[in-house]
Design a protein that fits this description.
Elements (H helix, E strand, L loop, with lengths): L1 H11 L2 E6 L14 E4 L2 E6 L4 E5 L9 E12 L6 E9 L2 E7 L4 E8 L2 E10 L10 E9 L2 E6 L2 E7 L8 E7 L6 E12 L1
Length: 194
């Protein structure tokens, strides 16, 4: 009976599409400045008043997926400026992202042909842990034209969007504002097909 139970559990496990343990910087992240991998974390720094967006080039992923990761601000020089996951990426000019800032707010952006849109404007949520070093677990579930976002186990928003034809790229974005540079660590990164 235990073998049957194990077989059922194994059969129900999600298919892992992509996972990075961040022991070293995989070349599929490109060779951007201010990016490193160590101790199980991908650390990205954006200089003052800049964005650092990187799309992983390892594979085109299915549009229907579930991505999860942990994010923490190593340095929050601009605490009101957000950082997070890029999903439904077509190329460097077309993607969505979910950003969290160190002040406890989140937003969803849509970069479309070089224009930045805000399908979900910045909003505060008590579930977000604030400040430098605070870790937040984020999960993005996409199915069809729907994206549902969870922060620390709580569903915070669902939105309708446009997934790219033929599959998606995935990545991370770190932004810094006028007050100073942000350095952000991403860990426990996994993409599965539910």
């Amino acid at each position: 009976m235990a073998i049957v139970f194990l077989a059922v559990i194994t059969g129900l496990a999600a298919n892992v599409l992509f996972e990075d343990k961040f022991t070293t910087l995989d070349p599929s992240w490109g060779a951007p400045d201010n990016v490193s991998a160590k101790d199980g974390k991908l650390i990205i720094t954006a200089d003052k008043n800049t964005d650092q967006t990187i799309l992983n080039q390892a594979n085109i992923l299915p549009n229907d997926m579930e991505a999860s990761y942990t994010v923490a601000f190593v340095k929050a020089g601009s605490p009101s400026t957000g950082s997070g996951l890029v999903f439904w990426g077509k190329d460097s000019n077309n993607w969505y992202d979910i950003l969290i800032n160190a002040d406890g707010w989140f937003t969803v952006e849509h970069q479309f042909k070089g224009r930045l849109l805000y399908p979900v404007d910045y909003r505060q949520d008590d579930t977000i842990k604030k400040g430098e070093g605070a870790e937040n677990q984020v999960k993005v579930v996409t199915k069809g034209n729907q994206a549902t976002i969870f922060i620390n186990g709580k569903k915070v928003v669902s939105l309708t969007g446009q997934s790219p034809e033929g599959g998606s790229l995935i990545g991370f974005k770190v932004s810094s504002g006028q007050k100073g540079s942000n350095s952000v660590a991403f860990s426990n990164f996994k993409v599965v097909q539910p």
